[in-house]
Amino acid sequence: MRRLPQATDAETDSTDHSALRLMLSYVEAECLRMGATDAARHAALAASLMPETPKAPPPVTDQRILRRPRGARLH
Predict the structure, then answer these.
(1) Number of structural domains found in the chain
(2) How many angstroms separate the CA atoms of 26 and 64, rounded?
(3) Which residue intervals make up region (Disordered) (predicted)?
């Protein structure tokens, strides 16, 4: 299995981060629409506790990927 470049990982993390923020804002709006103000407040709190930018992935120091031998049992 090949390791994708770190730029792709960073883009994916950024996209996931944006999608999660969008989802939380949608949940907040829907909760308010239904009259569930406490749930809306929790969704807003969760969104506010998210860091502004996602953490950078740790640097890859070893390009080798450890694999189990083919046909090896898991348990």
Answers:
(1) 1
(2) 41
(3) 49-75
In a domain, 24, yes or no: yes
Contact predicate 3/59, CB 8 Å = no
What do you get for the CA distance between the two ends of the chain, in Å?
Answer: 23
pLDDT score, position 41: 96
pTM of the predicted model as reported, rounded to 2 decimal places: 0.55
What is the mean predicted confidence (pLDDT) over 29-50? Answer: 94
One-letter identity of residue 29: A
Confidence of residue 34 (pLDDT cuts 50, 70, 90): very high
Domain that holds residue 10: 6-49
